[in-house]
Amino acid sequence: MPECRSVLYKFRDERVLHFRCQLGHGFSARTLFQNLAAAREDALWFAMRAVVEEAALSRYLMRDSGSRDTHLPSFLCELADRADTQIGRLRKVFASISDLIEPDDLETTIVNLPRRDAGVA
Ligand SMILES: [Zn+2]
After folding, report:
1. Which residues surround ligand 1, an ion (CB under 5 A)?
2. Confidence at residue 106, expressed as pLDDT on a 0 to 100 scale
3. How many domains does the chain have?
4. Of 55, 80, 92, 117, which has the fewest CB atoms closer than 10 Å, so is most exposed?
5. How far apart (Å, rounded) are the C-alpha atoms in residues 94 and 9?
6. Enclosing domain of residue 75
7. Would you say residue 106 lies in a domain?
8. pLDDT for res 20
9. Ligand 1 centroid vs 26 CA: distance in angstroms?
10. pTM
11. For helices 103-111 and 29-65, what crossing angle results, to 10°?
């Protein structure tokens, strides 16, 4: 996906498949794969930061409210535990996405795509 989020069209120059967005930006399939891989990783880091901060905020409020409230600390402890569980799940996702094919591996395959893919999407 291009950073401008515009709709993509595909076309073929000789044997090489290219993409162009409605705003005129040009992309190779390799660049699109690189953009998608970066977007995938950014999204996971964004999610990871959010749950790490949820756990930290819950624990901070738990310590801060411990002597004033009897119900809130246990609720916050549960929130922190749930966030820890999500952190563990996200770590497994990070490990699993490293198994995905990398853009460099696809370059030869993309260049050799059959001509029936030519034209506008
Ligand atoms: Zn664009």
Report:
1. 2, 4, 6, 21, 23, 25
2. 57
3. 1
4. 92
5. 31
6. 8-101
7. no
8. 93
9. 7
10. 0.65
11. 150
